[in-house]
């Protein structure tokens, strides 16, 4: 029987298999299909009734759970019923209304400034292109892609921390930069699957492929995961999947 230390040394000595572009393309399709099978119901969990409400909810969801955002937004949307009401909001009042979602000063400013831009430059209508959305103050690519995909039915690849981490673990990208991950994934998957892939990957990250310690036992993608035997670079206190 090989000791755990013996296993680690053996693993370190084994050269990692080289994976070419064809493997990555096929892996992306395998992963996409496995996620679709495992998470058929995955969708946007944020509460919204209009593109602007989704924009606001998505800004609030940064570093915050969807459940927490959904507790705040019904009352927020009653107090500020449309984009013009948000654009005319008092910053301090808005900060108080969203305080429980965290990072409330930055979020309030992003909501206020993007709402002012929508009123001033787009006649009060949320724009429908990535370029116009990301030109709004306080709106980044992730938020813009959420709005495109879920309010306008336009393909958008959302890369949050779950999607970036899981794409790397499954061998779909080597990049840490979310924009580079987004471009890698867009090249690998058909546009019609981008939105669902984001929802399903986020669901997978919440249920199994957590940071820093994934729950590999029972993971529906384990057979596809190239980290076999799963040895992660350990940071202090972090468990590798083999130790869970
Ligand atoms: S086997 Fe583990 S590391 Fe691989 S996708 Fe599943 S949870 Fe993530």
User: Shape from CA axes?
Assistant: elongated
The biggest sheet, with number of strands, parallel, antiparallel or mixed sense and barrel status, is: none
Q: How far do the termini sit from each other?
A: 20 Å
Total domains: 2
Strand content: under 5%
CATH topology grouping of the largest domain: Endonuclease Iii, domain 2
Average pLDDT taken over every residue:
89
Count of helical stretches = 12
Helix and strand string, N-terminal first? HHHHHHHHHHHH
Judged by helices, strands and strand pairing, the structural class is: mainly alpha
How would you name the oligomeric state of the polypeptide chains in this document?
A: single chain
Number of strands: 0
Low-confidence residue ranges:
1-15, 229-244
Query: Whole-number radius of gyration?
Result: 20 Å
Ions, cofactors, ligands: which are bound? Answer: iron/sulfur cluster
Describe the structure.
- The protein is mainly alpha-helical.
- It has 2 domains: 28-41 and 157-243, Helix-hairpin-Helix base-excision DNA repair enzymes (C-terminal) (Endonuclease Iii, domain 2, Orthogonal Bundle), CATH 1.10.1670.10; 51-151, Hypothetical protein, domain 2 (Endonuclease III, domain 1, Orthogonal Bundle), CATH 1.10.340.
- 55% of the residues lie in helices and 0% in strands.
- It has helices at residues 4-13, 21-38, 51-60, 66-79, 83-87, 91-98, 104-122, 130-135, 141-151, 161-169, 178-188, 194-207.
- α2 crosses α12, α3 (51-60) runs antiparallel to α9 and α6 (91-98) crosses α7 (104-122).
- The chain binds iron/sulfur cluster (SF4).
- Iron/sulfur cluster binds at residues 169-170, 208-209, 214-216, 219, 221-222, 225, 227, 241.
């Amino acid at each position: 029987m090989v000791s755990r230390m013996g296993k680690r040394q053996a693993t370190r000595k084994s050269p990692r298999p080289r994976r070419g572009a064809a493997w990555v393309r096929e892996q992306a399709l395998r992963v996409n299909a496995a996620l679709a099978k495992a998470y058929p119901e995955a969708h946007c969990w944020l509460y919204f009734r209009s593109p602007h409400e989704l924009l606001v909810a998505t800004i609030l969801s940064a570093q915050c759970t969807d459940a927490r955002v959904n507790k705040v937004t019904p009352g927020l949307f009653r107090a500020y019923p449309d984009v013009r009401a948000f654009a005319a909001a008092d910053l301090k009042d808005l900060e108080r209304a969203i305080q429980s979602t965290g990072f409330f000063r930055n979020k309030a400013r992003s909501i206020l400034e993007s709402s002012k831009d929508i009123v001033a430059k787009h006649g009060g209508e949320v724009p429908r292109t990535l370029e116009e959305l990301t030109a709004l103050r306080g709106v980044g690519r992730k938020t813009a892609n959420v709005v495109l995909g879920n309010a306008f039915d336009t393909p958008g690849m959302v890369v949050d921390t779950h999607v970036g981490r899981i794409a790397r673990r499954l061998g779909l990208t080597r990049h840490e930069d979310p924009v580079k991950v987004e471009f890698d994934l867009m090249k690998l998957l058909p546009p019609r699957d981008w939105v669902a892939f984001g929802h399903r990957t986020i669901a997978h990250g919440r249920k199994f492929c957590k940071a820093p310690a994934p729950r590999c036992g029972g993971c529906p993608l384990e057979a596809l995961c190239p980290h076999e035997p799963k040895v992660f670079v350990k940071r202090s206190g972090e468990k590798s999947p083999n130790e869970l």
